[in-house]
Amino acid sequence: MTPRENVRNADEISTVIRDDNAMLGLGIPERHDVPVAESWAALVKPGDENSTEYGDMIAQLRDFLNYVTAARPDSDTVAALRDDLERWGRRLAPMAVPERDQMFGHLRDLHGRGQTMSPTFVATEADRDNVWGTVRFGRYFLGGNGAVHGGAIPLFFDEVLGRLANSSGRRHSRTAYLNTDYRSVTPVGVDLTVHGWFVSEEGRKRVLRAELRSGDVVCAEAEGLFVRLNPGQP
Ligand SMILES: CCCCCCCCCCCCCC(=O)SCCNC(=O)CCNC(=O)[C@H](O)C(C)(C)COP(=O)(O)OP(=O)(O)OC[C@H]1O[C@@H](n2cnc3c(N)ncnc32)[C@H](O)[C@@H]1OP(=O)(O)O
User: Fold this and answer.
1) 204 lines ligand 1 (CB under 6 A)
2) How far apart are alpha carbons 127 and 148 in whole angstroms?
3) CATH of the structural domain 40-72+96-228, one choice from 3.40.50.360, 3.10.129.10, 3.30.10.20, 3.30.43.10
4) For residue range 45-58, what is the model confidence (pLDDT) as tens digits?
């Protein structure tokens, strides 16, 4: 008997659906209510126009990607969605701006910077050399068998360590290497804890490490070298 066949009443059904949704990384609201950790907030560029509204739209887009990933829609639904997406593409295309003016990924006062490329990192505490926070990979980031895709994890580490490497007034650096060790399966739809920290800073070279945990279990670890850019270096 499957867990669903075992369900007896409406309360139990809604509990099962809620649990399934959590497992799938569905219906998880973006956490705009959590304040950005104080020293991490020093990176914030205040007053980004429409940033809250844009952030809410990105949160919807994140949920949407999770629903698209999880659904097996009928052909009418697929056709309707394709047409809607095409209409939105045509509406947005004339609004393209140069990179420096785009909002996607540039809203540093929002958790996740207003982008959907990597899951939202919620920084809860930070100092000059450390950041702590949480992340939940939605269904969109599924690799297989409930595990997060192996490529999504270094992307996430680059997001956290890249930002920490350039925090607290440090001049901009770029990732030279980023080594990831997959210690155990990283589960989709589960709140994970993150710690990123400086190991050393010598001349232009900044070595940082990070750890991703599910409860007490270490899911993945990373070490990155970030090299401070010389003036004029892209
Ligand atoms: C506007 C809003 C934006 C918001 C953003 C928010 C945050 C976003 C978060 C996302 C963030 C995302 C961030 C991203 O993803 S950045 C994107 C990914 N990274 C890149 O595209 C970088 C490409 N590479 C380069 O540009 C150059 O190679 C760099 C600049 C890295 C170094 O070239 P450069 O010519 O300048 O320097 P150098 O070659 O003399 O090297 C200098 C020193 O470093 C040592 N070295 C170099 N490489 C390695 C290596 N692989 N292993 C070990 N060591 C290495 C080297 O031996 C030397 O050491 P030493 O001999 O002096 O002892």
Assistant:
1) yes
2) 29
3) 3.10.129.10
4) 445 556 788 989 99
